[in-house]
Structures are given as structure tokens and as C-alpha cells.
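FW: tagging you since you asked about this chain on Friday. Here's the raw sequence from the shared folder, copied in full. Didn't touch anything.
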Amino acid sequence: MRVVFLFLSLCLLHNYSRAAKRDTTGFYEIEVAEKRISPELMHFISGEGDSLRTATAWKVYRLLDTLLNTPSSYYYPFDSFRSKSVSIQDVPDGKFRLFTYNLILQNGKHLKFGYLQARDGKENTVYPLLDTVFRSNKDLADKELETTEWMGALYYAVFPFKDKKKKCFLLMGYDGATANSNKKVMDVLWFDKGNPVFGREIFKEGSYDLKPSCRGIYEFHNQSTMLLRYEADRKIVVLDKLGPAFPEAVNDFYYYIPSGDLDYYKWTKQGFWVRDALDNYDFGQGAKPKGPQSAPKPNDPGQPDAPELDKPKE
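HL: got it, structure written out here
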């Protein structure tokens, strides 16, 4: 009997210690604010007119700033936000959470908003994220970015990995780039002396690539859908290979579409995500003869049977 009593006491103590770590003080106030804003959450996507959409996007942004700076908010689920229009990505170790959402203007352009909420002990540090970067894809691919110069994206997946004992996080996101094209983004988030940094020179377009990029940016026609997915069981990133719909459209990303082939990135012992054709991946069949690793380039030839695409909007 004493053994059973001791066991139950230990269980209760364990559950109490776990609950003690999750401060729920202030949850009621956060819930009231969440319910108040919840009916408006879709306005910045489908509201009548750009004025309403823009005003709502900024209203949500200011409210999130207040709520996320509340100490107990790190453990609040924000279910109404998740179920409607705000993407919230948590990491397994509880180091941070990412809140991102899109303001969609009537001309088809997207403006991105977000917050990075980091947790250190009992303290929250909240970093505002505003899409203030307006450079070419090439410049963005080659540059580490601070939170003040964030390349906006609606993040839909986060996966941890280690680079030379430094914990990093692989981010996958969607970017409604223009009225005529969309982007998928593969980025990295890591912390340099406690400060968050986006991007790291660890992406190679093949084993021959001597100049790694800080991130992968993939732009394509807005009537197409691109696959970009991390497969945890194989620890690889699988993605569609993109190419111009016809030879004359080289470097005109409005006309880029999935080719029907798949590529993948795999983390190597040398500390790089290296790209190759998925046909070359060893699924257990053993190594097979192949030429040098290859990856799609902007000047790849188009597809002979590509579908006819609408002309870009003026």
C-alpha cells in the first residue's frame, strides 16, 4: 500500500512540476482578445477593398505584438488564429514560435507580416517581422538576413538539424510573389549569440557547386503548384524541378512550371544540403550507375508538351 501511495505521489509531483513550467497566468485576457479579433481574421485576405484588408492586417499585427509580449503567451495555443489565416509554427524544443500571415491586395500582390517569439528561461523575446526586402532572387539567395530585413514568407513547416554542432532550423514557406507568379522558399533560421538570423551558406545545387547559397527561392507560374516537402523518415527535402514552358521563356519565371521530374536535397557530412535528381536517390536498391550530380538551372530547355499559359496581367 505504501508503494502504491508513493507511486501516486510521485506521479502527482511530476504532473505538478510540468504544469508549473507552463504559466497560464493571463490566459483569460488573451482568450478574450483572441475572440474579439477572430471574426476579422479573414478580412486581410478577402475583405471588401484594400483599405479594409490593410487596416485589418495592421490591427492583427499590433494585437499580436501586445499578446506575444505577455509572459504566459508562449504557452497559449492561439487556436482561432491557427484555424483561420495565421500560420503558427512551433519547434519541438520550445525555443521559438513563428507567426506569419499574408495581406492579399486586390491587384494580386501579397504583403507578409509576422513575429518570431523566442523563449529563454521565463522570458519572451519578440521580434517583429515585416516584408521589407525588395531585391532580386539572386541577391536574396546569397545573403544572411536579420529580422529587420526579413524576406517575407508564409511558413508551413519547420525542421531542426545541426550544422557543425550549431542547432539550425529548416524553414519552408510560400510567397505570393506577384500577380502572375508565386514562390516557394526554403530558408534556415539559426541564432548567433542569441540573435536570430535567416539564411546560411549551406545550399548547393550539386556536388560540383563551389558557391553555396543561403536559401533556395523557386518562382513559378501562379496557376501551377510546386511540391516542396521535407521527408523526415529519409531526412531529405523533395521538390519539383521547375523549367520554362517553352524555350523562349528562359528566365521569365511567369512561364516556369513543374517539369514532371523531382529533385531532392540531402544533408551531407560536409555540412551542406546538396541537390540531386530523385532518380539518383538510393531507396534501398543499392547504388546505380549515374553521371555527375545535376540540378536544374534557369536556362534549362522548356518542356515540349507544356500547357498553354495565360498571358501576364498588365
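FW: The two ends are 81 Å apart (CA to CA).
HL: agreed, and The longest strand covers residues 181-192.
FW: great, closing this out.
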